Amino acid sequence: MGRTLCVYNRNRESFLGLRVAPADTLAARLRGALGRIRLTPNDGIWLVPSRGIHTIGMLFPVDLVYLNSANQVIHLVEHLGPFRISPIRIDCASILELKPRAIYSSNTQIGDELLICPPEQMENVCKRAAAASAEGAPAADLGRA
Fold first, then answer.
1. Which helix (H) or strand (E) holds 9?
2. How far apart are CA 74 and CA 22, in angstroms?
3. How far is 63 from 99, CA to CA, in rounded Å?
4. What are the residues facing 22 on neighbouring strands?
5. pLDDT range class, residue 6, cuts 50, 70, 90
6. Which residues pair with 19 in a beta bridge?
7. Distance of alpha carbon 9 from its chain centroid, rounded?
8. Is the per-residue pLDDT at 39 higher than 60?
9. Beta-strand pair 94-98/14-23
10. How far is CA 125 from CA 104, 119, 144, in A?
11. If we measure between CA atoms, which residue out of 34, 36, 32 comes closest to residue 21?
């Protein structure tokens, strides 16, 4: 899959994906999830930029997390089935395409702030969270740099 990113919900302290592929070129955005049979639980695609998607030609449903330029959740679509068109959001900067039930299992809600970064950076965030937890600091403040 090439370069991958981790997606962490700072507000809910939960992961939405551990192997999310950035689709930040025209070719990658056009390809998206086409040709895949399914997304595994930690896989996903981060479409940058995007204001809406379609699932025409896809064989499986997806959860969609619409983000503004600060990676704050502005809209959610759960279980968008194949051969559908998602809502268009003018205020949207990017969209995460995730396995169905990713939104539910992470308890992600509108207004939540997501951290999207390479696994190495996420490892450092987790180490700081463990250290802060030992000192009694809230973990939600971590990862802000």
1. strand 5-9
2. 19
3. 6
4. 46
5. very high
6. 43
7. 9
8. yes
9. unpaired
10. 23, 10, 9
11. 32
